[in-house]
Amino acid sequence: MSPVIPVGPYHPALEEPYKIELDCDGEAVREAHITVGFNFRAIEWLAERKNYTQDLALVERVCGICSNVHTLTFSRALEQLAGVEVPARAQHIRVVVHEAERLHSHLLWAGIAAEVIGFQTLFMTCFALREKVMDLLEAVSGNRVNYAMNKPGGVTRDIVDPGMVAATAQAIRTAMEREIIPVFTTDRTVRARCAGVGVLTRDEALAWGALGPVARASGLPQDIRKAAPYEIYDRLDFEVPVRPEGDVLARIVVRALEIVESCRIIEQAVDGMPAGPIDAGDFIPVPAGEACARIEGPRGEVFYYVASDGSDVPLRVRIRTPTFQNMPTVALMVREQTLADVPLIQASIDPCYSCTDR
Amino acid sequence: MEPETILESLRVTAAWEVRGDGHWVEAPDLDVRAMARLLLSVEARWVTLTVSPVPGGGFRLLYHWDLAGRLLNIATTVPEGLTQSIADIWPAADWAEREARDYYALEFAGRDELPALMLRPEDEPGLFSRTRELGHDADPADAARVDASRGRRDAGGEP
């Protein structure tokens, strides 16, 4: 009889709860069953009972890491409903914070991945760089997380020291190119631990709706910033890293390269930042109707649907987070892998259970 | 494949409404499985399913797809709480269908099983629908009291 090994819902090194049950044959995983919902907060339901101002604060709490992307997506859905154009300077500021959040998320993940691999010095290097990003975000917004930067029609605060922002982005880019990317791409320990492990094929990624770096590491060149540009992305020069291997190493490399691209984007957004207003003025309540918005978050596309009856409380709010789509693919990735590789494989999708459970 | 060709292939007579946030169409008699097969064949990408209750009963199902960067929003309605599953064609839809059951007690024909996703296995499906019955301004905790009155476990247990 094959042993079934339950892992979770509570984990020694992970503050978020979920459960994965592994059907094993010796050390090999035959099948995996994932259970989520331990942090279910019914945020969609709550959003339909609070006004738009309250909802802006509510959706920022969907995720503790990519909080900014939720207020941005929600705000863009309301702007679509109201037909409001966001001022140019606000668009630049939105992109700076959006990409800084991606840096924060990816560097956090890179550090954790290094720690899971057993590479403690790389963990410390990644987290030291992440501190620079946190300092940047704190200087811009006053907060290390939950920046409260977005509002329907623009942003809440200006960037008063763009030179500091550009210098920080440049310093991170240099450190990534000189120190971290060479280690992640050439180090024998990293390769031995990650190459060929936890493969998700291109067809599987498409059929299961994988998003973001998970999809791009399986050969799918999807990125909303390119495919359906928002804010100023259509005027920026950046690459979308794609790898065909579909393994843990490919997911590491894609994110590492994305850090460099995010730094380039921030430098361009700051360099071309025009003078002018940072919001379009109040337009709440929004007109009756329905609208969608999509943003390329650190973990992939974030999707919001908002329906309005013209009052100050939305009729319907639908929130689809990237981990909601990526999490089921772990069951495919761990098949025929060794039990010892499961923590690394599940970490490789950069899971967010808070996002998933909403 | 262009969005217009998709509607022709699905025999949807309505035309797309093209807006800044994508293409929108209402297709009350939509064959959702034909839609799923067609969009798989053209390498569209699953985005999600939005379920909304319709005043007077039934549900509006809004299927969201990405076709080469264009967001396709295809709406249909179901008068009762039953529709066809597409999870065998698009595994990506599995969790969205399970979530729709959790929130609205919507059932999906053609599935071997439709286990709870966000709710606990012993919870009654349709959490959002049941709490709507309590009124728009109801306290969310009342949902748990609804469960308790039906002899189910109160909040605080395992999902």
Question: Your description of this structure?
Answer:
Chain A has 358 residues and is α+β, with helices and mostly antiparallel strands. Chain A has a single domain (41-322), classed as Cytochrome-c3 Hydrogenase, chain B (Orthogonal Bundle), CATH 1.10.645.10. Chain A has helices spanning 43-47, 52-59, 67-82, 88-117, 120-141, 162-186, 188-194, 202-207, 212-216, 224-227, 248-271, 322-326, 330-333, 342-348, 353-357; strands spanning 4-7, 19-25, 28-35, 150-151, 154-155, 289-297, 300-308, 316-320. In chain A, the strands form three sheets. Chain A has a three-stranded antiparallel β-sheet with strand order 1-2-3. Chain A has a three-stranded antiparallel β-sheet with strand order 6-7-8. Chain A has a two-stranded antiparallel sheet with strand order 4-5. In chain A, strand 2 and strand 3 form a beta hairpin. In chain A, helix 4 (88-117) runs antiparallel to helix 5, helix 4 runs antiparallel to helix 11 and helix 5 runs antiparallel to helix 6. The longest helix of chain A has 30 residues, at 88-117. Chain A is globular, with a radius of gyration of 20 Å. The relative contact order of chain A is 0.20. With 159 residues, chain B is an alpha/beta fold. Chain B folds into two domains: 3-110, Beta Polymerase, domain 2; 119-159, no CATH class. Helix content of chain B is 28%, strand content 26%. Chain B has helices at residues 3-9, 32-41, 94-104, 127-133, 141-149, and strands at residues 17-19, 22-26, 45-53, 59-67, 70-78, 82-84, 107-109. Chain B has a five-stranded mixed β-sheet. In chain B, strand 4 and strand 5 form a beta hairpin. Chain B is globular, with a radius of gyration of 17 Å. Chain B starts with a helix and ends in a 10-residue tail after the last helix. The A-B interface holds A 9, 35-38, 40, 42, 44-46, 49, 77, 80, 206-209, 222, 224, 226-228, 291-294, 301, 303, 305, 307, 315-316, 318, 320, 324-325, 327-328, 357 and B 19-22, 40, 43, 45-48, 50, 52, 62, 64, 66, 68-71, 73, 90-96, 103, 116-120, 127-128, 131, 136-137, 140, 158-159.
